[in-house]
Amino acid sequence: MKTVIVKYNAGNIQSVVYALERIGATALVTDDAVEIKSADKVIFPGVGEASSAMQYLKERGLDVLIKNLTQPVLGICLGMQLMCAHSDENDTVCLGIFEAQVKQFNTNDAAIKVPQIGWNTITDLKTPLFKDIAENSFAYFVHGYFAALGKHTIATTNYVEDYSSALHKDNFYGVQFHPEKSALIGEQILQNFLSL
Amino acid sequence: MFTKRIIPCLDIKDGRTVKGVNFEQLRDAGDPIELGALYAQAGADELVFLDITATIEKRKTLSALVNKIAHRINIPFTVGGGIKTEEDVSVLLQNGADKISINTAAFLAPSLINRFAKNFGSQCIVLAIDTKLEADGNWYVYLNGGREKTNTLTTHWAKQAVDLGVGEILLTSMNHDGTKQGFALDITSILSSTLPVPIIASGGGGNSEHFYDVFTKGMADAALAASIFHYKELTIPDLKNYLHQKGIPIRS
After folding, report:
1. pLDDT tens digit string along A136-148?
2. Nearest to A120 among B3, B74, B252 (CB)
3. What would be the CATH architecture of the domain defined by A3-195?
4. Predicted TM-score (pTM) of this structure
5. Are B179 and B152 a contacting pair, CB within 8 Å?
6. How far apart are CA B156 and CA A31, in angstroms?
7. Per-residue pLDDT tens for B202-211?
8. Which residue ranges make up each domain of chain A?
9. What is the distance in angstroms between the CA of the first residue and the CA of the last residue of chain B?
């Protein structure tokens, strides 16, 4: 099986490579269209800022490429947000795969820190991406923007309000948390994705 | 349920854990990778590796070590110690560190924070502050591993650093560090209640109750400790069970 990680101007790609290695998989990190199209599984990772990431993808035609992929695609963190319709982060039009809008956490409660950094539970788990994952399992999150709940929501997390911690439509999956840093639960989710 | 974090800290010198550890199940107690993996398995929420190696030559071993840690450890980890330039940060992140921590260099050149935050994102920039309560009743910032006093109030520096873009603050009370008498609750709660970023409390954790206090009275988002974990005076599962029973949101 050929797994490809989309290379772009986002951080933490290497952590995804290492996590896949821990579960016995290898991945090619590339921005080459032919390589990406011919992969069995595509992972679209990311830590960074939405508008500069979208700009980078557009300049290289990766925006159109990703939207038109037909094999299973997993967006992680910023990757998932970029697969949504629009992000309030610098008013960015995104890929529009999921209908969800990406908004900033907004709270007046001084005890709630933004960005959310740490472990939180995932609930209402749907699709085989969460096979063998118990309700209320803990995953590791680092983000200041979130995707609202909607028809593509397949996992829900609460921080300030309930939001989509995972999305699914057709062959596209997205997780807001970092499976590559979410201990055994995260490794199981990556394994589940590779088994789709 | 968003949870409080328990963070063991490992001091590294020339690629080895120092301060000593007391784990019989480790083949090599000085190997930070083995110790980190053991903590991750025991339920640690994150790890911090602080490099206290002095020379630049030996720092090259750090990036190789970070790379090995990133391969093995499946939870987030922060690397700190002597980070001064974009290249230092870039090398560590590329080798798989999730966050880097800065201290003296940022104090001496605060614009560093701004540059790091712009280039790498606030979420991976942790500001470590060593602080001491003086006779005048104020908490001051100390530099160079606590050897050098400044006349800057900790509250002022923390606020400035957050404005410049740090994503978290790791606050170590020199009055409490090593005492095992509990964390510095007052300065921790002052920072936590006035700043929008998470505060990691460090220094003084000696038993489970101290952690309970720092999460409640101290309002800390995370608590860090070293020797009590290394010497197994408190295990992470026991600590987490205690906190869970006391109603603190904690990852099980």
Report:
1. 999 999 999 999 9
2. B3
3. 3-Layer(aba) Sandwich (3.40)
4. 0.95
5. no
6. 45
7. 999 999 999 9
8. 3-195
9. 11
